[in-house]
Amino acid sequence: MKKTLITLLLFGGLAALLATVLTRPGEAGSTTPGVDRAIAETVTIRTLTDEMTIRGELRRDELQSINSSTDGRISDIGVEAGEVVAEGDALFTIDGRQTVAATG
């Protein structure tokens, strides 16, 4: 009886020791789920930048009035509506004479 009691106490103590070791908080290499780890890093001064990538199209809507000091009939239109023109492009023809885009 005494031998059985000693054996039970030894196994009980061993079980308590194992339970304590296995359930204590994790150490540095531990991967216990639900436990957060802190990561230490040396503090340095650096510049932070915000960058943003945007896709799109830029357009300038500008209407220009065209006045002519010449009387006559338009015989040909050299551009389409919405077409981009540069200085010197023929815009239309009045009675066979071309009228070109000018700065201003």
Quick structural gist:
21% of the residues lie in helices and 12% in strands. The chain is built from one helix and three strands; from the N terminus they run H-E-E-E.
End-to-end span in angstroms? 116 Å
Q: What about the largest sheet? A: 3 strands, antiparallel
Shape descriptor? rod-shaped
Helix-strand category: alpha+beta
How many DSSP-defined strands? Answer: 3
Query: How many helical stretches?
Result: 1
Oligomeric state as shown:
single chain
SSE pattern = HEEE
Strand content: 5-15%
What does the average pLDDT come to? 78
From the alpha carbons, calculate the radius of gyration and give it in angstroms: 44 Å
Describe the structure.
It is a single chain. With 104 residues, the protein is α+β, with helices and mostly antiparallel strands. It has a domain at 70-104. 21% of the residues lie in helices and 12% in strands. The chain has one helix and three strands. Strands 1-2-3 form a three-stranded antiparallel sheet, with no helix packed on it. Strand 2 (90-94) and strand 3 form a beta hairpin. The longest helix has 22 residues, at 2-23. It is rod-shaped, with a radius of gyration of 44 Å. 0% of the residues are buried. The model has no long low-confidence stretch (mean pLDDT 78).
Question: What's the helix and strand layout?
Answer:
Elements: H1 2-23, E1 74-77, E2 90-94, E3 97-100
Antiparallel strand pairs: 1-2, 2-3
List descriptors.
1 helix; 3-stranded antiparallel beta sheet; 3 strands; single chain; 104 residues; alpha+beta
